[in-house]
Amino acid sequence: MYKPIQEILTPGLISESHSPYAVSSFLAAKKDGLVRFILDYRRLNRITIKDSSPLPNIEATLRKLGKGYR
Predict the structure, then answer these.
(1) SS3 for 33?
(2) Rounded to whole angstroms, how far apart are CA atoms 37 and 7?
(3) How far is Cα 65 from Cα 24, in angstroms, rounded to an integer?
(4) For 29-64, how does the pLDDT look when each residue is reduced to its tens digit (9 = 90+)?
(5) Which is more confidently placed, 70 or 8?
(6) In this structure, what is the dihedral angle of CA atoms 39, 40, 41, 46, given to the nearest 10 degrees?
(7) CA 52/CA 15 separation, integer angstroms
(8) In whole angstroms, what is the distance from residue 60 CA to residue 9 CA?
(9) Residue ranges per domain, the chain?
């Protein structure tokens, strides 16, 4: 696990975290013989509090900005 993590940590694709939350990860073999790094977010998704408010209407929001919006 160390090598695949370093390959994505070094270029800055991921960053080190000290969060109390974590996801399980594992390596799975692909059909071509390479290895795939997999993250399982199912347990984290179960404890996440869902946001139940709807998204605002984009057209109405843009109209509030006034003339010249794009």
Answers:
(1) coil
(2) 11
(3) 44
(4) 999 999 888 999 998 889 888 887 888 888 888 888
(5) 8
(6) -170
(7) 29
(8) 41
(9) 2-48
Give residue 61's pLDDT. Answer: 84
37 contacts: CB under 8 Å, gap ≥ 6? 4, 5, 8, 25, 27
Asked if 26 and 38 touch (Cβ cutoff 8 Å), the reply is yes
The closest alpha carbon to 38, from 20, 23, 19, belongs to 23
Distance CA 27, CA 6 (A): 14
CA-based nearest residue to 5, from 29, 37, 43:
37
Reported in sequence order, the residue ranges of the chain that DSSP labels E, i.e. its strands, are 24-29, 35-40
In the block, residue with structure tokens 């977010």:
41
